[in-house]
Recover the amino acids of this structure.
């Protein structure tokens, strides 16, 4: 294999490039990124990057994933700000939006996912939060004085953004269509506990109600109008249209006044550029357990990959899948599998939520340390509450673990689950 192309220059793409070099690939390496930015860490965008506090400070150098020395050592050709338009399998080339083509023997698809948006014309003041440009545009509005902020969606991005907005002194309401935020991930009992963090943080939480539409008015003056990138372009489009958001209309008829709306309703895998290729796509690029597609010279990793029937938008998936994917790519067939134990975390209202494992409906849940009454602490002073540790169980076995501000015992249970999973895969 003489040339490998990595399409996607975010977390999974960078880790794939690292693995290629670590596993001995010394040929030409080309990394293509749709954004103009070098790889950066996304989790801080909804937290410290917005508030300018902690390790996720607004200084963009703090979110860089690779320094100049490592970038030089990778010896890759970086084509940033270049969006892939199509894949020509017969010609073994990736075609870019600007008409350029890049030829290679191997391909790593790491194009990630894009934030879902609400239908309707653009309005100034309406944001998503997925990219650095999204975060820049939102931060510009949040630093212009007190705002009435409505966050649509109570998932991780919505909850973390709401937490950051209230920390900045804004009036915040979260609208969640499900009966509880995070109920699909945590189950109703623990989701109810974690939902209490919103109230403790001073945020109104409206559940079980959808959004009928957004209201707008003439005379927009979007703070993000001068921001570069796609987010800035959308805001500028809204400003040119002369309308800014004024309210969110709910499906039950209520009207929530709003100066800023953040839409956090999930993400869609970036697979449009693969239309017409032989690769199978169904909510992500379909791969076997080793991240290998129907074509052995093509693998997929990260948010865009549906590995063994599962697509996981987790930081750990993006960092762990590339090892197996690259090994299989260089071998020319599947010799390794990527079965990381699902793990995610979220920082909200001064508390850290951590979850690992495979919970299923019907699993029982048991608190083994601490109490939900110990949540809270003093976020303004950086003091966490006592928190709790809960385990999910089925047929006498632990299937998953949840912790709020109980990092050390959580890691112990997580390691145990990972060891059990490894033994299960090994047939022990």
């Amino acid at each position: 294999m003489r040339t490998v192309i990595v399409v996607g220059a975010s977390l999974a793409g960078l880790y794939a490039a690292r693995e290629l070099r670590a596993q001995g690939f010394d040929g030409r390496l080309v990394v293509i990124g749709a954004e103009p930015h070098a790889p950066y860490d996304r989790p801080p965008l909804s937290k410290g990057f917005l508030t300018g506090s902690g390790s996720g400070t607004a200084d963009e150098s703090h979110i860089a994933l690779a320094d100049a020395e490592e970038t030089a050592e990778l010896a890759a050709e970086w084509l940033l700000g270049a969006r892939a338009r199509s894949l020509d399998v017969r010609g073994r080339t990736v075609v870019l939006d600007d008409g350029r083509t890049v030829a290679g023997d191997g391909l790593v698809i790491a194009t990630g996912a894009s934030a879902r948006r609400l239908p309707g014309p653009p309005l100034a003041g309406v944001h998503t939060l997925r990219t650095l440009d999204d975060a820049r545009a939102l931060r510009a509005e949040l630093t212009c004085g007190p705002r009435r902020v409505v966050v649509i969606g109570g998932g991780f991005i919505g909850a973390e953004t709401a937490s950051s907005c209230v920390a900045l002194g804004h009036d915040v309401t979260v609208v969640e269509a499900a009966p509880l935020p995070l109920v699909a991930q945590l189950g109703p009992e623990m989701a109810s506990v974690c939902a209490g963090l919103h109230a403790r943080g001073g945020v109104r939480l409206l559940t079980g109600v959808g959004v009928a539409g957004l209201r707008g008015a003439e005379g927009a003056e979007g703070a993000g109008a001068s921001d570069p990138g796609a987010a800035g372009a959308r805001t500028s489009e809204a400003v040119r249209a002369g309308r800014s958001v004024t309210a969110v209309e709910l499906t039950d008829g209520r009207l929530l006044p709003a100066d800023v709306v953040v839409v956090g309703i999930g993400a869609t895998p970036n697979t449009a550029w693969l239309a017409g290729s032989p690769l199978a796509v169904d909510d992500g690029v379909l791969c076997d357990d080793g991240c290998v597609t129907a074509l052995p010279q093509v693998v997929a990793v990260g948010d865009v990959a549906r590995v063994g029937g599962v697509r996981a938008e987790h930081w750990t998936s993006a960092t762990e899948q590339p090892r197996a994917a690259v090994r299989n790519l260089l071998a020319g067939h599947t010799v390794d599998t990527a079965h990381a134990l699902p793990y995610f975390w979220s920082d909200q209202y001064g508390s850290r939520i951590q979850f690992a494992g495979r919970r299923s409906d019907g699993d029982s849940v048991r608190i083994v340390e601490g109490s939900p009454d110990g949540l809270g602490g003093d976020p303004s002073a950086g003091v966490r509450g006592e928190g709790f540790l809960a385990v999910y169980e089925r047929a006498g076995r632990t299937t998953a673990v949840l912790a709020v501000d109980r990092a050390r015992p959580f890691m112990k249970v997580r390691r145990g689950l990972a060891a059990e999973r490894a033994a299960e895969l090994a047939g022990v």
Observations:
- Residues 220-231 have pLDDT under 50 and may be disordered.
- The chain has three domains: 3-112+270-331, 115-220+235-266, 350-426.
- The longest helix spans residues 407-426.
